[in-house]
Design goal:
alpha/beta; 487 residues; disordered N terminus; Alkaline Phosphatase, subunit A; four-stranded antiparallel beta sheet; Sulfatase_N; 21% strand; hydrolase; Arylsulfatase; 21 strands; 27% helix; arylsulfatase activity; 2 domains; Arylsulfatase, C-terminal domain; Sulfatase
C-alpha cells in the first residue's frame, strides 16, 4: 500500500511540476510575444514644397536620409496639408480637425491673445494618456501666451521658437519691424534670444541635439516626438558646416542641413535599438512661399504656392517609415491629409480617439499595405478665416469664385527680399480633373454638369457644418478658439 501511495505521490508531484513549468513557460512566451506600442516621430517642415526633396525632383542638392526613408517606407504623393498657412495647418495636424472647426486661422503673431484652446485634445494628449513620453522640438505657432504653450497642450518637454522666426525686428517688411525680439523657449520659459541670422543658423542643430537627447532619455518607454523645424521658412539661415555645400544656393544648403537632422535622429534610433519599433512620419505644413525667389522652395509643378487653395499651396510629400510594418519602396497615390495623422497614429498606438467631433480618417490598413482601401474620398479647401474656396471628391476639384493670393505674373524677389504678389486676385469658379490636369489649368465645368452638381451638394453640407464666409454662413458645429483670460 505504501508503495502505491509513494508512486501516486511521485506521479502527482511530477505532473504538477510539469504543469507549473508549462504554465510559466507559456506566460513567458506570451510576455515576450506581447506587442510593444511603437514610438512615434513626426517631422513637420515649414514652407517646404512638394518638389523640395531629391526623391520628388529637387535639383542642385541631395536629401539622402529622407530619400532613404522613402526607400525603406512608403511615399504618399496625393497628400494635402489641411490649410496653406502656418498656425491653421499645425492646429489641424495636432487635433485632426479642420482649423476653422476649432476657430483658428492664419498665422498668429507675437503676443497673440488667442491660441489653440486647451480644451481641444491634441495627439500629444492622447498618447500621454497611454503612458507615452511626449516632446516637441521646433516651431509651435499655436499661441505664445503661456496658456497655450506645448506643456499645457499634452507635451512633457518643449524647446524651440513660439512662432515663425521672421516675426522679429529684422523682418524685410518695415511695417512689421516693430516685432519684439525673438527668443527660444524651453519648457515655459524664454531663454536664449535669436537676434541675428547667425543665431537663426543654429536652430536646426540645436533642435536636433534636443531631439537626440530625448530619444536617449526615453529609450525604455514609448515616446512621441514632434519635430516641427522652423526652416526652410524665410529668413533662410544655415550653420557654417553646411554653408555653400549645395549648387542651389542658400535654400539648398538649408535643405541639406535639414536632411542631416533627419539622418542624425534616425541614426540615434538605430543606436538605441529602437529602429524597428518606431513609426517615423515626414511632411510639411504647406507649399512654398514663391515670391521669395531663390530663397523659396518648389511646388513641383503644381499651381501657385503657400497661402492659396490651389495644389501648390497644399500638396506636400508624406513619407512614412516603420520597418516590417509599412511596406518598403512603395508609392501610394491615395488621397490623404494631415487631418488623418492623428486618428491613424492613435489607433496604431492603442490610444483612444478624441471625445469631440474631428475630421480625420484613420488609414492604418492602407498604411500597412492594403491598397484596396480608399479611406479619404473628400476634402474641403477652406482658407482665410472661414472661406470655403474649393471642394474635392476623388480626383474632381470644384473651385468657387474667391479672392486669393497669387504669384503668377509677378517677378519673384532676390537675396532674401520678397517680390510682388497680390492677395486679392479674383479667382473664377472652375472644375478641374486632377487625374489628368494636376496643374489646374483647364476648366471643364461645361463638360461635366453632373459632377458640378454632386460637388455643390458636398459644399452645401460643409457650409451647414462649418460655415462659409464667402456666403456669410455660420456653421452649426464650430468650437471657440482659446482666448487669454482677462484680469
Amino acid at each position: 500500500m505504501n508503495k502505491f501511495f509513494n508512486s501516486y505521490r511521485l506521479f502527482t508531484y511530477t505532473f504538477f511540476g510539469l504543469f507549473l513549468s508549462l504554465f510559466l513557460f507559456t506566460g513567458t512566451v506570451a510576455q515576450k510575444a506581447a506587442p510593444q506600442p511603437p514610438n512615434v516621430i513626426l517631422f513637420f517642415l515649414d514652407d517646404m514644397g512638394y518638389g523640395d526633396l531629391s526623391v520628388t525632383g529637387a535639383l542642385g542638392y541631395e536629401t539622402p536620409h529622407i530619400d532613404r526613408m522613402a526607400a525603406e517606407g512608403t511615399r504618399f504623393t496625393n497628400f494635402l496639408a489641411a490649410q496653406a498657412v502656418c498656425s491653421a495647418s499645425r492646429a489641424a495636424l495636432l487635433t485632426g480637425c479642420y482649423p476653422n472647426r476649432i476657430g483658428l486661422s492664419g498665422a498668429l503673431g507675437p503676443n497673440s491673445q488667442i491660441g489653440l484652446n486647451p480644451s481641444e485634445e491634441t495627439l500629444a494628449d492622447l498618447l500621454k494618456g497611454k503612458g507615452y513620453a511626449t516632446g516637441i522640438f521646433g516651431k509651435w505657432h499655436l499661441g505664445d501666451h503661456p496658456t497655450f504653450l506645448p506643456l499645457q497642450q499634452g507635451f512633457d518637454e518643449y524647446f524651440g521658437v513660439p512662432y515663425s522666426h521672421d516675426m522679429w525686428p529684422l523682418h524685410p517688411n518695415q511695417a512689421n519691424a516693430k516685432y519684439p525680439s525673438l527668443k527660444l523657449i524651453e519648457g515655459n520659459q524664454p531663454t536664449k534670444p535669436v537676434n541675428t541670422l547667425a543665431d537663426a543658423g543654429g536652430l536646426t542643430s540645436a533642435i536636433t541635439e534636443h531631439a537626440v537627447n530625448f530619444i536617449r532619455k526615453n529609450k525604455k518607454k514609448p515616446f512621441f516626438m514632434y519635430v516641427p523645424h522652423p526652416l526652410p521658412h524665410v529668413p533662410l539661415a544655415v550653420s557654417a558646416r553646411f554653408k555653400g555645400k549645395s549648387k542651389r544656393g542658400l535654400y539648398g544648403d538649408v535643405m541639406m542641413e535639414l536632411d542631416w537632422s533627419v539622418g542624425e535622429i534616425l541614426t540615434e534610433l538605430k543606436k538605441q535599438g529602437l529602429d524597428k519599433n518606431t513609426l517615423v512620419l515626414f511632411t510639411s505644413d504647406n507649399g512654398p512661399w514663391l515670391n521669395y525667389g531663390e530663397h523659396a522652395g518648389s511646388s513641383g509643378g503644381f499651381r501657385e504656392g503657400k497661402g492659396t487653395s490651389f495644389e501648390g499651396g497644399q500638396r506636400v510629400p508624406l513619407i512614412v517609415r516603420w520597418p516590417g510594418v509599412v511596406p518598403a519602396g512603395r508609392v501610394s497615390n491615395k488621397l490623404l491629409s494631415t487631418l488623418d495623422i492623428l486618428p491613424t497614429v492613435a489607433k496604431l498606438c492603442g490610444a483612444r480617439q478624441p471625445r469631440r467631433k474631428t475630421d480625420g480618417l484613420e488609414f492604418t490598413g492602407l498604411l500597412k499595405g492594403d491598397d484596396s482601401q480608399n479611406p479619404r474620398q473628400q476634402f474641403l479647401y477652406y482658407y482665410r478665416k472661414n472661406s470655403l474656396e474649393a471642394v474635392r471628391q476623388g480626383n474632381w476639384k470644384l473651385v468657387f469664385a474667391h479672392p486669393s493670393r497669387s504669384y503668377e505674373g509677378f517677378l519673384p524677389g532676390q537675396n532674401g527680399q520678397p517680390g510682388e504678389t497680390t492677395e486679392k486676385r479674383e479667382m473664377p469658379a472652375a472644375l478641374y480633373n486632377l487625374e489628368r490636369d494636376p496643374g489646374e489649368r483647364y476648366d471643364v465645368r461645361g463638360q461635366f454638369p453632373e459632377i458640378v452638381a454632386d460637388l455643390e451638394k458636398l459644399a452645401e453640407a460643409a457650409r451647414t457644418d462649418l460655415g462659409d464666409d464667402l456666403q456669410n454662413r455660420t456653421g452649426a458645429n464650430v468650437r471657440p478658439v482659446g482666448r487669454v483670460a482677462k484680469n
